[in-house]
Amino acid sequence: MAHHTVRSGYESLVERLNRLPQGAPPSDTLYAILKLLFSEKEAGLVAQLPIRAFTASHAAKVWKMNLAEAQKVLDALAGRAILLDIVAPDGATTYVLPPPMAGFFEFSMMRLRGDVDQKLLAELFYQYINVEEDFITALFMSQTQLGRAFVNEDVLLPEHTLTVLDYERASEVMRSASHRAIGICYCRHKMMHMHRACDAPMEICMTFNVSAALARAP
How much is the pLDDT for 64? Predict the structure, then answer.
């Protein structure tokens, strides 16, 4: 397999991603995706980051670089939606690496950008997610299922339902969110590049809470 010859920074990043409940099964396609989103140096640095949220000073210590250098790397990654930067009410900033999905896979296509070949990225995502089976199988059929649909309770007829708990209600998720944002639909954007676009609008993908608060204009 070609991915065995990829430099160790990407291999380390794949190992790091698979420490999460929702990982990313290795394949040539995955390595091609990561090479578009990360430089080899960035991949090696991100691979060293903890699973939980961390500060810039912690990253600097792990990376053995001064705080200013670490801050520059973290802000560059956050600016490309690879990392999430979370600002607390007291102004303190922490960072976290989201999973591939829902996470930096989608974020890479939820706005138009010129720093990455989004057509090529869309083709690779389609291959990895729509054609290859390992990723979707791990996402929806593993013991720890992270992919699920919320209930739009308005379409449920009274005779067909008993009680929908609040945490399963789409309306409750929207009502209780601290922040709400609309971005470009990752799926429709991907399919547009595959020449399989539908007639539905593109700017419809909703994010809530921290992800919405961190949404940025292109």
Answer: 97
